[in-house]
């Protein structure tokens, strides 16, 4: 017999170790591993990690097979792997009903179990007795199944099993928005059983989805029916959320060593090398000790101070575990594998030595990895004082097979028995390597010859739909319907894919089906659904964003992406192709668009270079005809090929006879019915208030209090005359600032004009009230008017009234093609007309009344939430509703409509803004840095304020403008506000045509008051007026000096306050302040110091707690000064100026103290404030506020407007005054006799 080579001897040693420590415990019937000799429960995750060493060893033997026995050993080890993988598969298949249910509910109680009996494979605890929802465990199963199948093992035997695996893919598809219990089975770290979104689960799911895509589960022997399909967009969403979370693990865990499994072996889920390094370094610096790494900060598991009699912790207890958390050698094993894959021998050796030092040697000489090392009870206090100083003792299972298995893999790699590629046959480890640039292929098709010829005029050669045959072009919703057939299986009772969402990555592939080839147009270009697709400029910008997104996200797919666009009649603007479209198409011809490489061509030319997916799953597999199309699919496709575009009502179309001499009195009475529903306010007296402005008894136009000469009652007619005769409005919102809290005393009653302002704070208009107005109108007269009037606005008002009084389904008595026409049908026609004439205010309103949904609202909200941004809708401070978890579409729409009451336009606008915010967070996440909560109501108000500032018009006109912006302009305005850029509205081109359109109908629209002669605006004396003052006739005139600088810091603070933006590391710093005082009081709400006991400084839950208190401040600029005051306090703590700040600190006192010092300075050097707050006799102590509490200059919350408008730095800067205020506070609190050290930096 030949002598054994050295490598053979060494491998025989490892084989004995693996046999003794791992395979000896494998249950012969199920193939599963029990947790320990005394506990027969088999955890999915632990079992998978256990078997990795066996799989690795089998591949090592395969290479050196110098004797037949070695081949036999290889086979035996491989079959152990197959046995385990099939044991887990059988256990999960017994719960197939759960998989089916979970696809629609995503409820923790409907999830697959996390552990099974290793003896029978049955369940061991009930659904509600354990945190079973652990997406990372199911994902790890799919990932390892894919890797083992790719290495040549045959694990899946039948097509029914393939269908089950396909449904497991759907099970983990929505990992990016499904909170689960995570790798440690606890969810929130207080262990009260609250699931949360975990980065480690999302990363594992992303890896599994990518590994499973287009994988043939029958290996080399399979055919099209054994291939798994994954929608690339789902993996991409996981990727995006993961990137936004790392190095954070979840809301309650700011960091977790479990992330090592995501950034390196086995998942390799992160593509960005810097993010991988950052995460690894953070874990090593914050969690690594001598004996391994802590799982996460303040982890009480097995520490001497944990109360073993109960599972959960009290929030205040968590502080006790600081610095004495157990250390797990397991994470050294992950780091060793990480350095093996990087080829970093130095670190590999270092960590291998660290690990072997703390391993425990048994009698037979085998070294074992223990589960964890804990601090002995009597040494806990010493360890807490000086972390890392005490010896620890091993606790828990020994060997901990999960870690032991990874250790053996590390040794096999270190000694060269395995190459890294063998452990990763799918090459996941290369995902962070640099790839060549993606070339995006673009095909433009014309709906018919007419459009093709129009494009030809611009030298754009395109084909029509009929010319690209045999390739068929369909909208994305057809693809989403076809995907519902994927994974269906009658025997197992599985219904296929539930989600109807197909993203741009999926529609950028071509699909083959038997002999046919399909191309799909992107989902966000589906014309039937939403009005935003009617704006050519928005479509063009969405399109360029899509191209850029494809350039970044098209990974791990064979072939190039192809975007197919359809130029339809819908896009024409009065028979012409819009310029926005033409310029974009011209850019495409250049080969680059916004830095992404593109190529424009015909579908036929791209067939050889595109990514093509086979839709083989549409065959009648279960009937035994795999090559024949499923009859349901067949009929669906046929029906879709025949569908014509649209059938329209012609009720409102009438010969264009112009009748001006109608009785105007009758018309007046309906006018403004739409405007009556508005709830956006910019007027200085109520920014941020839930005000309801109903106009006069004619519902004409609300007079602004800011325009009334002193001592006169405003009447709507005068106001109207004045508004349109004087070239500029006398108000400029840069100066008249909102004071929000209106209490009964502080606002003198408005002049008693009959019904001028009806019920300022009553929301729902009651029907009876409308009835007084329309008492003399008969319904049929209204309908006659409806047919006669030319103005769409007027039609809108009449229909609004009909809906208010009779409801949508009211039969109008008209006939069309023998059918009765309801109000709803008329609204639809009006909507179509408004869309084609681009009357966006009317479009938004009718869309709201028809209950149209904005594109993928639920998806947009989810996109924001999963990136750790909470959302509030509704107008602050009374009506804000916070959304903290993803909701289904209909519930969201319901919530938004409830938040805005009758105001359909603003409800629609909110949906629209949510979609834009989601677009921005996908493409420019840096805009959202340091913002935790997006308050859409406040953002809308700030947008209106900005418009009123740039157009110098009053609040109502500004909100009218806002609602009439085209979707593209709306998106740009939002972008400007988010990025804090200065902007001016270009009155010359974008809105000038609107001026002409509406010159006929001045009252109804706000689009004609754009002031082009700017000089005029600033030379007038500005009248600064406050709520009550105009009525007694005291108006202060303050000359406006250099126009550009004034108001800039006020605007900046207002924007930052409305967007909830805070300085970097603000919340961590506030945490440090809380440690040094007995609480911070803001708006009467207290931030208790015990929050530092419950939460770590970097924890998201802590940040949200602070932010909730800050959000109780209604005025954005005041909130921003409070944030600045907190920053000054943090500096006191950081520079250790004092040991303790004493009792509770009321932050607003600091701001008011700073204001007082500011006014004293102003009086001393007779600055601008002497005209308002620092005036003689104004009572500087009270900040110039009388009992009424309103300031002359309109500053919010009793702080002088000029202080808000000071830069933070400099001699007269806000920081200077706040620092002086803090110094004054400390002077009161420190004992007088102690000398104060004064370090000047």
TrEMBL record:
It is found in: Cell membrane. Residues 707-734 are annotated as: Disordered. It holds the Pfam family Glyco_hydro_15. The keyword Membrane applies. Its main location: membrane. Keywords: Calmodulin-binding, Carbohydrate metabolism, Cell membrane, Glycogen metabolism, Lipoprotein, Membrane, Prenylation. Residues 8-937 form the GH15-like domain. Residues 725-734 have a biased composition (Low complexity). Residues 952-1159 form the Phosphorylase b kinase regulatory subunit alpha/beta C-terminal domain. Pathway: Glycan biosynthesis; glycogen metabolism. It is a lipid-anchor. InterPro entries: 6-hairpin_glycosidase_sf, 6hp_glycosidase-like_sf, GH15-like, KPBA/B_C, PHK_A/B_su. Phosphorylase b kinase catalyzes the phosphorylation of serine in certain substrates, including troponin I. Belongs to the phosphorylase b kinase regulatory chain family. PANTHER family: PHOSPHORYLASE B KINASE REGULATORY SUBUNIT, PHOSPHORYLASE B KINASE REGULATORY SUBUNIT ALPHA-RELATED. This is Phosphorylase b kinase regulatory subunit. It comes from Vanessa tameamea (Kamehameha butterfly). The gene is LOC113397553.
